[in-house]
Amino acid sequence: MLKLFERCLLAFGILAIGYCGFIALKAERSQLHGRHELERSSFTSALPRTGDVVGQLEIPRLGLSTVVFEGADDDVLDRGAGHLTGSALPGDRGNMVLAAHRDTFFRPLRNVRVGDKVKIRGRNKDSVYVVESTTVVESDDTYVLDATTQPALTLITCYPFRYIGPAPERFIVRAVLAQP
């Protein structure tokens, strides 16, 4: 019986490692495809559909660079950062809301500081934002998603960063459009 249990654990371990490898390869492939799409500027429609490339987010000081896809469902967040549908698009007035997992694409956010530059390469133009504040909110605090009259960027990820399992809070980075 012990030998059977041992083999079951081994099989489970191999499957778990295989699944993690599959997710990592899927993310890498999506990032490469997204960057290629951005370079070609081959956007198919004015309004992106779930899964479409919206742009690229970079925070040079943190070494963070990720393609942003439309939507915030699990499939999108496995591939890169997600643009919350209905929020402002890159280069538009209003609050652009981007989300990503704390243990993958937004892991570097744990070291973000006020004053950091955030670059967004959008479908129509590039924008530079400056981090104005960071805060931690409860997972059901949705006021951070509210529209703004001025161009703003809100980055959302789960918090605490080292938490195992579904995290109880959200880490919020608010940035404003840099003055030219």
Describe it.
With 180 residues, the protein is α+β, with helices and mostly antiparallel strands. The chain has one domain (2-177): Sortase (Sortase, Chain: A, Beta Barrel), CATH 2.40.260. The chain has helices at residues 2-40, 74-79, and strands spanning 53-59, 64-70, 81-83, 95-99, 117-122, 126-138, 152-159, 169-177. An 8-stranded mixed barrel has the order 1-2-3-4-7-8-6-5. β5 and β6 form a beta hairpin.
Global morphology: globular
How many individual domains?
1
SS-based structural class? alpha+beta
Number of strands: 8
Instruction: Please name the fourth-level CATH homologous superfamily.
Output: Sortase
Uncertain runs with pLDDT below 50, 5 residues or more? none
CATH architecture: Beta Barrel
Radius of gyration: 18 Å
- Binned, the helix content reads 25-40%
CATH topology, which one? Answer: Sortase, Chain: A
The proportion of strand residues reads 25-35%
**How many H/I helical runs?**
2
H/E element string?
A: HEEHEEEEEE
Features:
single chain, 180 residues, alpha+beta, Sortase, Chain: A, 2 helices, 25% helix, 32% strand, globular
